[in-house]
Specification:
Blueprint: H1 2-12, H2 16-41, H3 44-72, H4 74-77, E1 85-90, E2 96-98, E3 102-111, E4 114-115, E5 127-134, E6 137-142, E7 145-150, E8 153-163, E9 168-182
Parallel strand pairs: 2-9, 4-5
Antiparallel strand pairs: 1-3, 3-7, 5-6, 5-8, 8-9
Length: 188
């Protein structure tokens, strides 16, 4: 469920340049379809001129849709920078938890940045959300305190402070720790 929420957070709020590029792509596809229809239903000079015109329009739309993100500027291609610093207070490196599964308390410290509750495309440096990954898979979009139910084994917890659009800062603001979960002693 969290993966779906994560994907929706990224898909629902794309940058305006994405809308423009996608729109140009669809207009180009319409021009290709129009050229095909005219080529198969119109004869003569007018039909040939229409096919060439629609073909040029399609090529132009596809070309602009491809290069537009590069032309609009760095905001569409680069990510904002954050001076935020993130530290995992708990669990500590090498810490052992017992249980099957074990409840692992997660405590983070974020300095020089603020967690905001809303998702927006109006990204402000040093404002964002926390994403938690356990063994490479997102498990929570959270605040600075939570707990995870973790099965036995050696695990890597990665915490990342991301912008309010759920995209990473550049460079990424993240930290990770490896800990272990063991079954309770005497448990079969």
């Amino acid at each position: 469920m969290l993966r779906v929420a994560h994907l929706i957070a990224h898909a629902v709020f794309p940058a305006p340049v994405v809308f423009t590029s996608e729109g140009l792509f669809f207009v180009g596809m319409g021009a290709v379809f129009g050229a095909y229809r005219v080529a198969h239903h119109r004869e003569g000079t007018l039909g040939r001129v229409a096919v060439v015109g629609l073909g040029l329009a399609a090529a132009g739309c596809f070309s602009v849709a491809t290069v537009l993100p590069f032309l609009i500027g760095p905001g569409s291609l680069s990510r904002p920078t954050s001076t935020g610093q993130l530290v995992i207070v708990s669990p500590r490196a090498g810490e052992i938890f017992r249980g099957d599964p074990a409840t692992v308390p997660v405590s983070l410290r974020l300095s020089d940045a603020t967690i905001v509750p809303i998702t927006t495309i109006h990204v402000v440096p040093n404002e964002g959300h926390i994403h938690l990954y356990l063994d490479g898979s997102i498990v929570a979009m959270t605040g600075l305190q939570t707990s995870l139910s973790v099965s036995p084994g050696t695990h890597t917890l990665r915490a990342e402070f991301v912008a309010s659009d759920h995209g990473p800062f550049r460079p990424p603001v993240h930290t990770e720790v490896t800990f272990e979960v063991q079954p309770r002693e005497g448990a079969a």
